[in-house]
Design goal:
alpha/beta, D-amino Acid Aminotransferase, Chain A, domain 1, five-stranded parallel beta sheet, globular, Ribosomal protein S6 modification protein
Length: 283
Amino acid sequence: MTHKLDGDCTGGGCLTANGAVMLLAGKRPRPGTIIDELTARVTAAGRSVYLELPHRAQNLGKERWIEGAVIVHRGLSRAILEQLREEEAKGWRMCNRAAASLLALDRPELMARLRADGVPVPHSQVLADWSSCQAASEGRNVVVKAADGSVGRGERIVFGGGSGLPIDQPFEGPYLVEERVTHDGMDRKLYVAGDTCFGLLKPWPRTQEPDVRFDPPTDLREIAFDVGLATGLEIFGVDVVMSPGGPVVVDVNVFPGFRGIEGAGEAVARHVMRLAGRPDPGC
């Protein structure tokens, strides 16, 4: 049975439902999305799923939380994630863990953590102002990203060639300036859900060519799982490009949409159900 609770509902303290799944989403899930499929698979296994939309009031609606439930969240603001981290410290089981999600939003800290754990990432530096970025880019191919990764995926990113960056500041700093990796023109997107790894090949820069599913080879799987070990993420995506020296991780995103990935819903549901204390979600 699925119980949908949102910010308009009222309650008098935590409900109790061991093995239940509590979904905290940035917006109401649309049909056909990964959260919609997760809900269908978990409820088909006889477990209750509860939905909260904490963005509406910028609070967790904690009085309606389900005691003993696994808290699965996607698309939440930094402020909400900070609140989740506090609850996580009190013993609530989050997926992904709130601390790991916050780490992924801090691009400089994320890259530093990956580098320290031996994951191949581009050389980078953090600069406070745009003029410093312009000076650092002279004669180099660079990618400049907002240090704050909480903005929309793919936004606040500028590519600079050897002639330098745009004169006008495109967005507020601080900035993460990375070496632009020379690669074979393909973005190898790796999608991880628990112990399962999927692959999708995308031309980069984008073309009209379709994306292609692929089975990630051992070295790419190891990189993907190493990212999970380094960050604490459980459901996430990794962008890898193939440089002359081997694979390089250029981006990590939390709980992606898994579009075009057959079997992703089953893998996500299986992982969530394991956390909820039931290994087989009837997939």
